[in-house]
Request: fold
Amino acid sequence: MLETTIAGSLPKPAWLAKPLTLWAPWQLEGDVLTQGKLDATVLAIKEQEDAGIDIVSDGEQARQHFVHGFLRGLDGIDFERKVVMGIRKDRYKAEVPTVTGPIRRRGPVHRAEAALARAHTTHKFKFTLPGPMTIVDTIADVHYGDKIKLAMAFAEALNVEALELEALGIDVVQFDEPAFNVYMDEVRDWGVVALERAAQGLRCKTVVHICYGYGIKANADWKQTLGAEWRQYELTFPVLARSRIGGVSLECANSRVPLDLIALLAGKDVLAGAIDVASDQVETPDRVAANIRAALKHVPADRLYPCTNCGMAPLARDVAMGKLKALAAGAAIVRRELS
Ligand code: ZN
Reply:
């Protein structure tokens, strides 16, 4: 009960990638980089175990970014043809590659780090993949000319990858869809259909992560425009509740999301963000416990998984570790109260 987990990414060691940076450039090259990614994956697993996290992740140590890591394994994308594009409804600019031909998966993308992590932990293991709508929002396209067709092409490639990860013994496949919080009409019209295609045939637990983004300035500024109550989830939760996805990971701690919206997810697992990733301040276990209790008013304990709000990639490593320990300690407090 109240098994803890993380949204996905952890900071990378400074010898692997530039610290405190999103889209951080690698510090290694060639075979040494390949080995470094795997070494950092084992380290990330062990650090989560030491912190007391129940459902561990690979920490996304082998990918530069949660979207483009997967895209590197696909044909049909020209990574040399970079375009600066406003993403998430122009909230911030990113340099993105371009789709120039049919999307096809060349072969396993994340097998190496997933298999290695699986071999190094007896904990439950969650693996994250980008969701189709968020990929479409993070890439330029001169081939398909149609967002829905492009999303379905990515969904098919994701599905093959997800089924292979499941076969490796992954317990939870999570699709990251921060774009779900930006394009509410499109989520209803085709976003969830594409997501379900990506998850088709999976028998392990499936989760979709939606959020208000990392703690970077563009997101912090955007949040200031959203008013006293962030009600975006009010539109997406009923659509997700009707979907075949098993759970939803959402931001709670230090946010203005009215937690009673969680009731709209009846029947789903809820991965409730009890750790703020937009602050360097490490939460006390009591603070985390209070966040978990607040979520428990709206979701039964056997469906609640205390989690981080979002990826921790841009944080300092010691801050991230402190937050993981606080998460585990906070959940332990609430478990004791319930037993
Ligand atoms: Zn997120």
